[in-house]
Request: fold
Amino acid sequence: MFVVSLQTLAVGGAAAVRAGGALCITLNLLAHTQTFHWRIKGVQFEVRHMNGAYVGTYTTGSNGRVYITGLEDGWYTVTEIEAADGYLLDTTPYNVEVNAGTTATLTVKNTLASSILIHKVDSVTGKGIYGVQFLVSDSLNNPIGVYTSDQNGYVFIDKELTDGKYYIREIQAAEGYLIDDTVMTFYVKYGGDLRLWFTRIPETPH
Reply:
C-alpha cells in the first residue's frame, strides 16, 4: 500500500515561480501500520482547478515526488491516472486547497496488486487442458472476469486482484471433458501470488 502526500508549500522561497502556492506530491510505502520512505517512480497524476480548468499531468521522478509551483490560491483536484507497475490504480479524485504561506496535506492509498495462476490438467495424462473457461468473482459474488486456459492449461491473472476472498468456478469445459461447476473459494494476500491446480477426468478413456 502506498501513501501519496500532497503538500502546499509556503511561497517566498527560491522555488516559487510567481506569487501563489506550490504543490508537492510525495509517494511513501505504507505496509500495514508502518510507513517506509521508499520512493515510487512513474506514477502519473492529473491536476485540475476545482472549476475544471486543466493544470497539467505530472509523473513522479526517481525520488517519488512531483513539485508544481506557481499555483493560484484555491482548491484543486488531483487524480491518479497511471499507477506504478504492479499496483492497482486509485481513480478517486482528491481535493486539496492551495494557499500562500500555508501547508496542506492529503493522503491517498494505493494497493499492491496480487496474482493467481490456474492450471487445468487431465487427470490421466497430467497434460494441461486448453480452452477451459473460469469465472472469478469477489467475496460478494461480483464477477471479476472470465478467463480461458491457454494451450498448456494455464490461466494467469496478473496483478489484477486486491487481497481478500474470491470464488472461482468452471463455466465451460474443453471438448471431450465434462464440466465441473463446483464453486471453489480461495484467498489472496496483499501483493502475493497464488497457484490453483485443477484436474479433470476425460469423458472417454485414453
In short: Residues 1-19, 28-36 have pLDDT under 50 and may be disordered. Residues 121 and 128 are 4 Å apart (CA to CA).
